[in-house]
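Batch manifest line 155
LIGAND: adenosine-5'-triphosphate
JOB: complex structure
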Amino acid sequence: MEATFLSHGPEETEGLGQGVAELLAPGDVLALCGELGSGKTCFVRGMARGLEVEEALVASPSFTLVNEYPGRITLYHMDFYRLRDLEDLELIGFWEYLGQEAVVAVEWADRIPQAFPSDTLWVHFSLVGEREREISFRGEGEAGRRVVEGLLRKG
Ligand SMILES: Nc1ncnc2c1ncn2[C@@H]1O[C@H](COP(=O)(O)OP(=O)(O)OP(=O)(O)O)[C@@H](O)[C@H]1O
Ligand SMILES: [Mg+2]
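JOB STATUS: finished
ARTIFACT:
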């Protein structure tokens, strides 16, 4: 399943993140890809709102590698920018986070694509203009179908 949206500003990207969060279930994994400044953290800020996380908590995890935000569903926010291989993931305990009743969102997921389960929802961000971002969702598993169908229904 696939769906593509055009965002015209940060608040729209946050709104999309919030809309996605409303469709999520514990155990869902989102792999976020796209160049610097393409809106991945902005999208996660919106997800946090949809998961009823205190938004003030949401910061870019580029240095901390993993941020944990308690909410309606716990959100683990990670960044693979500085990571290289599965061994690095072992060190941060990646697979232990996946096994929890939480939502996991990973920036720079395409650094280590082999880390992700087949049910992962892939989200690609690209810069179209100064304020325009193309955001596309793709998922072959149950979560992908649920979220993409839900987004298309919302319009
Ligand atoms: N439509 C848009 N959606 C999201 N961000 C936008 C948009 N238009 C402009 N921006 C700006 O682009 C930047 C996006 O930053 P953000 O930190 O979300 O990117 P990122 O993909 O997480 O980058 P990094 O790879 O460095 O973590 C912000 O400064 C934001 O204000
Ligand atoms: Mg970021």
